[in-house]
């Protein structure tokens, strides 16, 4: 049975999203493999701090070029749109679990690359904001 101290520690970690923050930082270290990991972590934490004012500034593993590459994979004929099924599949590939079920263009089954990238960046920014406002 867990002690009160262990329960308090678990609650603290959950409240402040510490485990998510550490997972995020570790993933970024392994993805980018910076020469100076300590400085890189400091910079990422500064970006997280700035993202309190602007969520789109939150650091994450994917940028516009990555999302453009995903669009190219999903749209090899370069029609400049993807189907709703492709949109869901691409977001799932990026690790996004909760998606907008009614994106712009979804009703006609033609979701533009820009809509896909905007939707993805918004969710990725939200998901990588692993800090809790105090």
TrEMBL record:
Signal peptide: none
Ranges for domain EFCAB10 C-terminal EF-hand: 65-123
Protein's name in the database: EFCAB10 C-terminal EF-hand domain-containing protein
């Amino acid at each position: 049975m867990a002690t009160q101290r262990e329960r308090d520690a678990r609650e603290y970690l959950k409240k402040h999203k510490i485990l998510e923050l550490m997972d995020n930082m570790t993933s970024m270290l392994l993805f980018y493999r910076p020469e100076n990991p300590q400085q890189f972590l400091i910079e990422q934490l500064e970006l997280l701090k700035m993202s309190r004012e602007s969520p789109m500034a939150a650091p994450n593993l994917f940028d516009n070029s990555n999302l453009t590459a995903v669009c190219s994979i999903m749209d090899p004929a370069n029609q400049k749109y993807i189907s709703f099924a492709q949109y869901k599949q691409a977001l799932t590939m990026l690790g996004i679990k909760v998606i907008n079920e009614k994106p712009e263009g979804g009703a006609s089954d033609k979701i533009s690359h820009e809509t896909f990238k905007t939707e993805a960046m918004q969710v990725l920014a939200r998901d990588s904001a692993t800090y809790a406002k105090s």
